[in-house]
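Lecture 7 notes: from sequence to structure.
We start with the chain below.
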Amino acid sequence: MILSVSEQARLFLLACTAGFAIGFVYDAFRIVRVAIPHPFVLIQLEDVLYWMLVIGGMFIFLQHVMDGEVRVYMVFGAFLGALVYFLTFSVVIMAVSTTIINFIKKVLAVLLNMIVVPLRLILRIAAIPYSIVVSFVCVLSKPCKKLLQNSVACVKIRRRKLCRDVSIIFRKR
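Predicted structure tokens for the same chain:
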């Protein structure tokens, strides 16, 4: 298919726009990584997902715009668009998003402290009667333990006597 120079220029600008979109999608992944720290394996999986999205998006773009024909200026336009995006807009977007994310984290930390500090105070206040009860139980546990052991021994003795009496009663018959 033969294209005019103006049509090639239009397609080149569309490819540059696709490159901008590629850069923006990558920044979205980067923003998520800044907001929620990821382990190395998950970062690798995200990168694979990103490249699958880019490849699929470029395939659909080329199918729609050029009927599947790949031209060098289209690839160069996408690369140039992504490069321009990363050198200009990406710096600003990442700085602003990092600032917003840090602000949100600080607000959440303050809100969490507003919830946790009263709970800590309640637990400390509740710990005082608890410690008194525990110390009281510890003081009483030694005599109670002996009393319990004696009562268990007493029950065993009575059980033996009862078993002996029952066996005597049934032997006589």
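Points to note: The two ends are 119 Å apart (CA to CA). The helical segments are 5-35, 40-66, 72-87, 89-172.
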